[in-house]
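Standup notes
- HV: blocked on the assembly model, inputs below
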Amino acid sequence: MRRIFFMGLLSLFPSILISQDDGLFTPEKRKAFADYLFCEKDFLRAAEEYEAVNSDNQNDSLKYKIGLCFLKMGEYEKAKNDFSRLRNSSLGEESKLLMLKIAFFQNDGNKESTEPSFKNEAYKTASLRLASAIKIKERITQTNLISLGNMLDENDKVDFNNIFSNKERWQRKSPFAAALFSAMVPGAGKIYTENYGDGITSFIVTGLFAFLAYDNFRAHHNTRAWIFTGTAAFFNAGNIYGSYISARNYNLEREEELNNEFDSFLNSKNYFVPKEIEGSCK
Amino acid sequence: MKIVWLILVFSFSLFAQTDWQRWQKSEINYAEKIDDPERSYSLRADNPFEFLLKTAAVTYWFFISDVDGDNCPFDPSCSSFFLESVKATNIVEGTLMFADRFTRDFNVFNRSNYRITNRGRLADPPEKYLLSTARPKVK
């Protein structure tokens, strides 16, 4: 009796499992699951689920979501491919704007990529700002930044000016001046480029060998004197070269800082793209 | 029958234990990785001049540097820096780069503007000091 009861119980499990199997993979449930994955930022699996639901490739909003997943993952070519197919759909304007965002990430300054036409005013403004940002990313100059600053809303303009109107950010050092200073006084070029430790060291090292050379010439130890002269000249030549490079690296560091600030400003403004077109999550 | 059950139970528990390694966050290491950590004592060179330079460097390494110990605070060391600089540029520029590096090696005041390598030294690759580099990796 017990065995029969046990067998009966065992036979129930597969029937329960099969009964639940039906509804798990319906398109609605898969889409809901994909939306959940998207909101959890699991974009790779979300894209797979959207693709599974959109196997016939007919649904534009799903295609758009797939493009968004690739965009969020940094798979720009795939995202561009998806958005470009939606140019003439009801999501065409949004797709064009997101393609402009991709052009920004890819440093693509082509006219075709940066000058799409928009009917929606908000998207048009966003696209103009983003196109200006692309130009600035190619070469960050004060003039370019001012032209972008003029396009911004009042609140953004204040943030923008706080970051970029600081004069210190635009201070540059002339490599030739640095080399010249070091040629006149060893280490002066490095001090000019705010490399104080190296500047003082250069001064001490070159000065020491120069003094030894002078002292030996005075004592008529000519061989030693010429060795010290050569050593002093060797260090000073390196110091002149190093000062030139130090000024160049100083400028590059400032430019790098400026670029980073610009990137983080744009990131805080979502690259001027309205957040609601990038998939809303509760 | 009992044996079958036992085998079943054990096999389940074995499978359950296959995932024995716990998931945990990976340790992030911000140290800069240097590609060639070991010195090459080979004298193989592309031209006679490079052979001469390499011979001088290997002689220095063998008789002085290795005996003196691991003292250079930089990565690559000054002698390797010289070899790499000359290889990347020419004898004049390479020598100037080396002279500058040698002076910086004397600096005892402030060395905070270097990254630290995975070997705990100051990262100072020659690429940072090339005249021809439009945009070197700064700092």
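- HV (later): unblocked. Chain A has a mean pLDDT of 85. The first helix of chain A runs from residue 2 to 24.
- Next: hand off to the docking folks.
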